[in-house]
Amino acid sequence: MRKCFFSIITYLRVMDTFKEVSGAYQGVSDLLSKHKVLSSKYCLNSGTSMPILGFGTYQIRSHQIYETLDTALGCGYTNIDTAAVYYNEEAIGQALKDLLPKYGLQREDIFITTKLSPRDVGKSRVNDAVKRALQNLNTDYIDLFLIHWPGAQGIGTTDSQNPRLRMETWLELIDLHNKGNGVLRAIGVSNFMTHHLEQIITLTGVPPAVNQIEFHPYYLHPKELYEVCAKHNILLQAYSSLGGTGNPTLIQNATIEECAKKHCVSPAQVLLRWALQAGYAIIPKSITPDKIRMNAKLDFELTNEEMNLIFTLNKKFNEKFAWDPVNVM
Predict the structure, then answer these.
(1) Binding positions for substrate (predicted)?
(2) Angle, nearest 10°, between helix axes 194-204 and 223-231?
């Protein structure tokens, strides 16, 4: 195995490195040498500071939320990620109301992200959707509100209504963000490709603060996406960093396992640290207490050779686990 490990490193000398692909994009990577991951915050282009490590709640059912958030808050997580289509906003709001006093925390100590359902895009629906999110989460403001998907529910990916509805939605969020009541502290997008970002930025002049998107060694992004994010100071936030549900191949990859052994950490920790060093904020999810704790222990460092070796896994596997927005008009 070790012979194979170093033969691939030698091969890297004639291949693109991740840095060559990502170009000027830095993201959260500069923070890692100065602060511990749990205490690191990134200043978004809106001026809002966001913890670079978040706790994801996708597919965590409402009856599991209290116990799971209890563990997460106890480990030091202060960034909670949810969405309308996760159907757990209300449970999160109630759990935070009950749990924050236990840990001596106030609402302002917690960063909450939620996302607009694709069924609620368009000028006439956004305001009501934001009000529902505020009510469900039992809060007066949302730290980061994302458009969950570049297309609208109920129409095809190539439907010409998608660009119009996307633009209407972004304009409504800009208006809500600019209002003095601070209901939306920062606004952003999720699953947006380069052409989606360029459309809303070109027509409004307002870039998203965050683009939350699938990212792991089997699924990388084109250079153009990094270029537009670097140009407009858009933070990339990774989901599915460990691979998809029912697809354990990434965790079991021999290269990842060898890096984990070298650093005396788990394969999951290697994948999460790799994403951080690539400049991405992360939102790992688990309902298992030990995994929640381990996912927060990321203060080791991968070497440049290890970073680039893991980067090359995409050349061989090239596998996407979640929905693909590339063809959304």
Answers:
(1) 148
(2) 30
Beta-bridge mates of residue 235: 210
Tell me the fold of 2-316. TIM Barrel (3.20.20)
CA 289 – CA 268 distance, rounded (Å): 14
Q: DSSP state, 219?
A: B
* DSSP-assigned beta bridge partners for residue 314: none
Phi, psi at residue 172, to the nearest 5°? -65, -40
Cα atoms found within 13 Å of the Cα of residue 30, Cβ hemisphere only: 7
Residue 196 labeled ligand binder:
no
- Residue 20 is encoded by which pair of tokens? 């060559």
Q: What is the pLDDT of residues 156-175, one digit of tens each?
A: 999 999 999 999 999 999 99
Question: What is this structure's pTM?
Answer: 0.93
Q: How far apart are CA 210 and CA 194, in angstroms?
A: 13
For residues 17, 22, 23, 27, the Cα torsion angle rounded to the nearest 10 degrees is: -130
In angstroms and rounded to an integer, the radius of gyration of the C-alpha atoms of the chain is 19
Task: List residues with catalytic annotation.
Answer: 86
**What residues form DSSP beta bridges with 237?**
212, 281
